[in-house]
Amino acid sequence: MDNKQLAELLFGDVKTTVDEITAKYPARTLPDKAEVTRFAPSPTGYMHIGGLYAALISSKIAKQSGGVFYLRLEDTDKKREVERGADEIISSLKKFGVEFDEGAAADGEPENGAYGPYRQSHRREIYRAFAKDLVEKGLAYPCFCSAEELDEIRKKQEAEKLDMGYYGEFARCRNLTYEEIEQRVKGGDEYVIRLRSPGNAENKITCRDVIRGNIEMPENITDVVLLKSDGIPTYHYAHVIDDFLMGTTTVIRGDEWISSYPIHHQLFTVSGLKMPRYAHIAPIMKLDGGENKKRKLSKRKDPEASISYYAEQGYPVESVIEYLMTIASSGYEEWRIKNPDADISEYKFKLDKMPVSGALFDTDKLNSVSRDVIAKLSEQQLAELITAWAAEHDETLTKYINDAPEKFADSIKLWKYNGKKVRKDVAKWSELTDMYDYLYVGAPKAHDFDEKIPPEKRKEFIDAYIAAYDHNDDSSQWFERVKQVGEPLGFCPNIKEYKADPDAYVGSVADACGILRAAITGHLNSPDLYTIMQLIGEQETIERLKKV
Ligand code: GLU
Q1: Ligand 1 atom closest to 243 (CA)
Q2: Among 93, 119, 239, which residue has the most ligand 1 atoms within 8 Å of its CB, making it the best to mutate?
């Protein structure tokens, strides 16, 4: 067969050569060892936490080496695309501090960078030129098999427990004559372009994975689809051409792609293109129904799989990033302990320190990391972050903030400090909603009193306390007063003594405080009660006590 003639038949309109295209993508001038990495999502509009994780890592690898991190939109599957999906991805990553040096821009905005276009749907002619080149070299051919025929092949392979795919005797269109092809093309039959795989299943290839080390796999033998019938490439083919032209040095992607590595290896080889390094990252998992039952965080089942969840819940961005870094790198936590105030950019991230099996996503751990992050923020920073969060996610809180800004500022002190000590019990802004009722609304509707103290005793204590209350007490005077009022009524002022002989008392001073706490806040747990009483003011304090 005359392959040149075939290439003209199939791609007569393609005039640009592979060499001409390649010349438009010169090597970048970057420092030695600089890494070029990319984030290459399909614009589905949904950002999985695993996507943020991969993007953070890729960005870090590029930035710390003085390289380039770019965004490429893999929008070749129109079925998966949603309107404004690209904008959604760009803006949600930006919220989490991930910014691109070059690449696709939000819809309607100009792209930034000389290695574009960065949307695969705008690169159709490039892929077609590369495919034409392979046809000319006898390394690709048109395939006219219908969906039904392919299904038939699949069923046969399944029934006979053979390797799946279009290869060997199953590759029916591999050896069509030029005349047959010409007749079908001219007759308007639909066709895809397939690789003519030179592979042999006996041969082994090695994936030198940056994270996992060498992985040996059999060579690819299937004639995979390169271009679909509409001329749009498959992921396999598009990423090979793009990562080559765009100068990617390390492809960082999910490990679900390891099994197709032999295809990619072969596509680079037959096309004569220099291959980037590959780093396959393990997915983020969660425990589901038992100690050892791990599964991937699922878009469908787990709200925490979406990065919008963290914004809605009010986790500061730094908390999420900090936590993802602890999952991503085994040395990170130790580094953080030694460098509590250092910027993450100072941490030298190494891909080969990444987990090889799926890292467990642990909400408790995230919360604990977040409490540490929040504890480090100043009152001013907290006020700004909470106000910004509330403006997007919490109308009620926004109203309170606007109605009484000083009270809001004081409320931050309330949960941030215990005397001079910084408390660490807030992990996300939505937890603050628990405080609304008693700080802003008024007397609690229900009171969670400890049943241990009989109601008559409770009343007796509250009456005596109201009579003795002095709003000008400082916090230690306040505590002394609770003791003084409580003692004659059977509340032991000394916890140790109480514990030595509990039956001799109604309760301890802690129980007396508990009565006041429940009366004022409704709950048995709250931040510092003295401060809460100061915040709501004398009149409100007395009213709430009287009410119970
Ligand atoms: N578009 C592919 C995906 O979303 C990208 C994989 C890659 O990074 O090469 O899984």
Answers
A1: 9
A2: 239
Distance 279 CA to ligand 1 centre (A): 12
Euclidean distance between CA atoms 393 and 397, whole angstroms? 9
Neighbour-count burial for 316-334, b at 16+ CB within 10 Å, e otherwise? bebbbbbbbbbbbbeebee
Q: Which atom of ligand 1 is nearest to the CA of 74?
A: 1
497: how many CB neighbours lie within 10 A of its CB? 13
For the chain, the C-alpha Rg in angstroms (whole number) is 33
Amino acid at 42: S
pLDDT digits (tens, 9 = 90+) for 277-295: 999 999 999 988 777 788 9
Q: How far is the CA of 52 from the centre of ligand 1 (A)?
A: 13
What is the rounded CA–CA span in Å between residue 533 and residue 469? 11
- Kindly report the average pLDDT of the chain as a whole number: 94
E strands present in 316-456: 359-360, 417-418, 421-422
Packed helices 178-186 and 3-11: angle between N→C axes, nearest 10 degrees: 10
Q: Which residues contact 273 (CB under 8 A, 6 or more apart)?
A: 240, 241, 244
Ligand 1: residue whose CA is nearest its atom 8: 253
3-state secondary structure 461-494: HHHHHHHHCCCCCCHHHHHHHHHHHHHHHCEECC
Torsion of CA 541, 544, 547, 548, to 10 degrees: -100
**Residue in 196, 141, 190, 146 with CA at minimum distance from that of residue 168:** 196
Q: What is the Å distance from ligand 1's center to 227 Cα?
A: 17
pLDDT band at 84 (very low <50, low <70, confident <90, very high): confident
Q: Sign of dihedral through CA atoms 480, 485, 486, 488?
A: positive
Pocket test for ligand 1, best of 257, 259, 281 (most atoms within 8 A of CB): 257
Distance 470 CA to ligand 1 centre (A): 66
Ligand 1 centroid distance, CA of 40 (Å): 5
Write down the pLDDT at residue 289. Answer: 79
Of all protein residues, the one whose alpha carbon is nearest to atom 5 of ligand 1 is: 40
Give ligand 1 pocket residues (Cβ under 6 A): 40-42, 74, 235, 239, 251, 253-254
Q: Ligand 1: which of 74, 241, 258, 264 to mutate, most ligand atoms within 8 Å of CB?
A: 74
Digit-coded pLDDT (tens) for 477-494: 999 999 999 999 999 999
Ligand 1, atom 10, residue with closest C-alpha? 41
Q: How far is CA 415 from its chain centroid? A: 28
The CA distance from 517 to 515, in Å, is 5
